[in-house]
Amino acid sequence: MLIHAFARGFKARFHGALALMLAVVLAGSLHSVAIAQSAALKGLPDFTELVELVGPSVVNIRTLEKVRTSPQAGNGMDEETQELFRKFFGIPVPNAPRQAPRQTPQPGRGQPSEEAQPKGVGSGFVLTSDGFILTNAHVVEGADEVLVTLTDKREFKAKIIGADKRTDVAVVKIQATGLPAVKVGDVSRLKVGEWVMAIGSPFGLDNSVTAGIVSAKQRDTGDYLPFIQTDVAINPGNSGGPLINMRGEVVGINSQIYSRSGGFMGISFAIPMDEAMRVTEQLRATGRVTRGRIGVQIEPVTKEIAESIGLGKAQGALINRIEPGAPADKAGLEPGDVITRIDGKPIEKSSDLPRLVGNTKPGTQSMLSVFRRGVVKEMPVTVAELEPEKVAPSKAELETKPRTAASAQGLGLVVADLTPAQKTELKVQAGVRVESVQEPAAKAGLREGDLILAVANQEVHHVKDFEAVLAKLDKSKAVNVLFRRGDLTRFALIRPVR
């Protein structure tokens, strides 16, 4: 009996201890889950404070262009005739603008007039409280009038202080004070995987907020800019808006997207603010950007080339052409040289060289580390000024260009002689201009507007020269074409269609 009672007591105590143990384990598990959930919640960013902080500094930019309009509509009827149709027949005139405002007859009626029409929509942000605003150069390019709208709905006419196409940075100014300026961040502290936010006007929708992470830094897509790549949703209209870190600092200007559809596909590019500020300072001071040049044409150093010349590591910029009389020519550089450093700064990729040289003030003497036939030489060079970017020919010039043109169907090219004005502007005496491009020339990288200097190693002065060279070519073989685009001259290898 005593044993039975003891057994019952032991059993009760055992079950109690087991229940306590299970309760402790369960409580520990629940606590761990709570900690995990709390950590997960803490890991999700809250952008509300950033929007409140930076949002008022973001502006909407609309551009207008002046279009010449005729007092006669496309149907050949003047305004009074159109009004008669509306009044007596109760129907609109075919091809007439809907609800066209009636204008008071003016002296000289019948003459064409200029009318401001919407050109585009973009974004920008307040750089200084006294009205300097940063945006993209392509947002204001070709605009006759720029309108800036603040978040409080005030609208101002803006003056374009300066724009730089090479970096796609522009500065505009409005007459206002006390504006909420952004805080510029340190791009060197930006990390891949870090959360960032964008504010802009995609498709004209003001102050739209999107967010994502930094996908990559130092992404090379141009000669002068190592872009910040993100997966922040950027669409047409976001251009010129700020890229903001979690400290509320602007680290970039949203500029480009990679897209096959014209819309967002998960890859966006922003101009780093350190690069943008260097350009901005010059634009505000002089209205233009001054860059350095040494007059070389370069290409990447591949692993195979590095091993074959004894360089060891694939780095630097390989010179394949030197402009006669350019700083590099005067300094004694030669084709085949590899520039590995400039003023002690390493050239890891060939694209580093034009960026570092471009950021060097013209007239400065820089020291180049040059690898030549197994030996590294230190060679001083005096940096010259890079000429301003060539402006596309005007409509008037295009209308007066020579009619002489040649078509090379096998190469996919149509070329024309240069006008005297174009030769003066481009500072050339020879060459033909590419009028249109199809395969296979397009596949080789040629574009409309390129200047062809030589075909199959034979210099081309006029269309007749171009035709003469083509007549002698073996139509089944690839042909090399030396062409110029902007300030760069390069080769293209066109493989005929078979």
Brief characterization of the structure:
The protein has helices at 2-43, 48-54, 79-89, 137-140, 273-286, 303-309, 327-331, 352-358, 395-399, 420-426, 463-472, and strands at 58-69, 113-126, 132-135, 145-149, 155-164, 169-173, 183-184, 195-200, 208-220, 226-230, 242-245, 249-257, 268-272, 292-293, 296-300, 317-322, 338-342, 345-346, 365-372, 375-382, 384-385, 405-408, 413-417, 432-437, 451-455, 458-459, 479-485, 488-494. The protein is of the alpha+beta class.
Which key features would you list for this structure?
disordered N terminus; 11 helices; six-stranded antiparallel β-barrel; globular; 498 residues; Thrombin, subunit H
Question: Could you please describe the fold and organization of this structure?
Answer:
Among the domains are: 183-286, Thrombin, subunit H, CATH 2.40.10.10; 292-385, Roll (Pdz3 Domain); 395-494, Pdz3 Domain. Strand 17 (338-342) and strand 18 (345-346) form a beta hairpin. The strands form five sheets. Strands 22, 23, 24, 25, 26, 27 and 28 form a seven-stranded antiparallel β-sheet that branches. The protein has a six-stranded antiparallel barrel with strand order 1-2-3-6-5-4. Mean pLDDT is 80; it is low at 1-7, 72-76, 87-91, 96-105 and 391-404. The longest helix is centred in the first third of the chain and has 42 residues, at 2-43. The protein is α+β, with helices and mostly antiparallel strands and 498 residues long. It has helices at residues 2-43, 48-54, 79-89, 137-140, 273-286, 303-309, 327-331, 352-358, 395-399, 420-426, 463-472; strands at residues 58-69, 113-126, 132-135, 145-149, 155-164, 169-173, 183-184, 195-200, 208-220, 226-230, 242-245, 249-257, 268-272, 292-293, 296-300, 317-322, 338-342, 345-346, 365-372, 375-382, 384-385, 405-408, 413-417, 432-437, 451-455, 458-459, 479-485, 488-494.
